[in-house]
Amino acid sequence: MEKLLQQACKEVDSAELFRVKSKTVPVNFEVNRLKSIDISESEGKALRVINKGKIGFSSSTGSEGFDLMVEKAAVTSEFGSAASFDFPEEAKRSEKKKINIYDRKVEYKSIEEMIKIGEDILGRVRDFNRKLRCDVTIVKDCNEIEYFNSRGGNFSYSKTAIAYSMMVQQIENQDMLMVYSSIESGEDNLEVEELTSEIIENLKWGDKIVPVDSGKMPVIFTPKAALVLILPIISGLNGKMVLKKISPLTSHKNKKLWSDLLTFYSDGTIDFAAGSAPFDDEGIEMKRVSLVEKGEIKNFYYDLQTAGIAGVESTGNGLRAGSQSEPVPSISNLVMEEGKVSFSEMIKDIKEGIIVDQVLGLGQGNIISGAFSNNVQLGYKIEKGKIVGRVKDVMIAGNAIEELKNIAALGDKAKWVSGKYKFPHIYLKSLSVFTKR
Amino acid sequence: MREILEKALRNKKNSADYIEIRAEKKEVTTIHFQGKKLEKINCSQQTGGNVRALVKGGWGFISFNQFDDLEEKIGEAIKVASLIGKEESELAVISPVVEIIKRQLDKDFRQISLREKKNLMENYNNIIMKSNPLIQSSNVIYTDRFSTTYFANSEGSYIEQEKPFLSARFTAIAREGDNVQLASESVGTTKGFKIMEKISTKAQKAAFRAVNLLKARPVEGGEYTVILDQILSGVFIHEAFGHLSESDFLYEDERMSGLMKLGKKFGSPKLNVVDDGSIPDLLGSAKYDDEGVKTKKNYLIKEGILTGRLHSRETAAKMGEEPTGNARALNYRFKPIVRMTNTYIENGEVPFKDMLSGIKKGIYAKDCYGGMTTFEMFTFSAGEGYMIRDGEIAEPVKDVVLSGNLFTTLLNIEGVGNDLKMIESGGGCGKAGQGPLPVSFGSPHLRIKKVVVGGK
Questions:
Q1: Residue A90, number of CB atoms within 10 A of its CB
Q2: Pick from A203, A224, A246: which residue ends a domain?
Q3: Which domain holds residue A97?
Q4: Min Cα–Cα distance to chain A from B408, Å
Q5: Which residues 269-328 of A are in CB contact (within 8 Å) with B?
């Protein structure tokens, strides 16, 4: 790769090459039986150049000529944005701690073994109820990342991931109960029980449909549903949105906006979390970046280019959506600090309210404004401190920026969601709930 | 390419019940303006392929970027298929085809310089940014893609198809204090560059709508009679109903297929719904689908009665119906699955002004931010909304999110307009991780009673 870069630098001032090689093996069970194993091998290269102070970019899959890539990148640099940064001269970690992200056992896990795990999951849930329609996916992923730039910065690493996920449907007449859950790790340490017990608990709670009236009421978001409230904030803390003043949070840095209970950070150094790596995708050290502390915005997150324009340092959040794209500010892992109240205490505290576990339309609509409006796909009614059944045809709506001011409590047990988010239960004093009744 | 694919197949074709190889070469250009700035300008080339093998009813699939060891890849696909296959392979019979399909473009975008494309989009971006002082930012995203797909199977078919695609999406972001609103307009086409040169009205409209939304108050949640414009109706029929017509999830699920039983009443006799991949040059069109099956016009609902559904060769065989030409793959990374092509509601008779009459308090919902469904439940965010008061369109409202149950909602359609419009937007359809797949959809205006609208 270094040779290729030397070649590129005959045409342009400086260059960076990012290469990904990956193999993904997903074992899919559909409707209670093994259905498909679609193996994906891929290879991709992204070339970013700085020429006459401007950024150019091109990408290709493994087999295309590198000459053409250089030519395209040089052409695009003619109209490119003015570069507000230089490629880093070295990719170096200041922290001594090694970040573990690769597990050989994941890479070499056999397809036969993965099939067995899937059958085990299916068996446990079907033992609970034979009439369920279950889909299960066991997927392993292995990535090799290589990075070089013409100023000397370089790094490479291998990373593994394994995930078990399950979707269960129970259809009766025109009603459908749908429950899904997944667990993910970089390490081969997942417990089938963790997945199946959550699914079975939800199926028990959801067996009976109960009515609920429209109005403002207390609402508990499970860790799985917490993104409804946090996604608008994540998008508002994006350095790029702030720089462009699109974010309503732009002028609120170091101001207290939300409840004291709210503290969360971006952290790419957590062992075996999905968003972890020694460096972001442009050679900047991954670290823990405090975003919100006790309700106060501490930092926005940046990549090199956005940070350069804003006159701040990159926070190591320059991530790419695959080998075909340039880095943009993105969250590596997001961790929210736990509170002190258990889920069952929250339930006991509520006279009449709902629990939201799964929603339709996450991230849909005008999320940057903070607004959300979602159909509750899976939710439960609480009456006099007890879960009494499942709610149907219910919508919730509000503005995350406003609602997070009124957190009644946070759960004492945060849970990883999608491998990169760690959330506790979030209990809101009052939220708008609508139903057909 | 033909030689490579056919040679690999020759040596392996008897080791599975069915084998196909698909390959794809494409060149993609993306130009993205955000605010006053050119955010991204990007050219990429991709070559990739995949093998799909069927053994005793089990499919093996592998996708890749390197073609050097194609026979080995076929071997791997067969091995995986054998782990899965435990029954009879079933595929609807079609006759093998050998055909090479070239596309004529009104103006070939491959011949237009990057500079010219960039200048044109810059111009549209300026229209948005300069239209109103309240416009805070913009997104103008242009993409063109010329791909050639290659298909060869163990039954002797070989099909090469050229698939051009262009899209432009204009988003205007308006802001007043902490009130931030956005509105989007988009265009997609397969026909060539010409249309891209004449869309300044779209840019103006996006800006106008975003500014207008600043004044809009959040809609009051509740149950309303709603009129949907052609875009939102089109999205509704695609998302809420169309996906349920996709047989891949139906054929293995007795309960779901019970709900979707042919002959069942789904709406009033005025309701006709069609999916047709054979309409020339629309976004969802192709002469052959990704299994080499010829596309055609398929009625899904005829005079209110469920009459058809969409198939791949496998679902057609399993359900004992004819293949419909709806097996589509987003690209070489994916297996073909049952997808819509161009889906629309046929014209009814009600003129738009008659639709409004008699509505005391209702909502006119236009355009769409996005939609999502899970089986019979759907939810859509309208891009633009107005109250209807005493039969007249009244003040603008925002955060209009419609949700409900498909079956009830279809039966609640009270009026089908006479102004069908096919929508070719720059977005696309997502399913099973495959998106955005180019599709078009359309409808006349629809009037629907008892729709739940979420809001403050």
A1: 11
A2: A203
A3: 2-203
A4: 10
A5: 324, 326
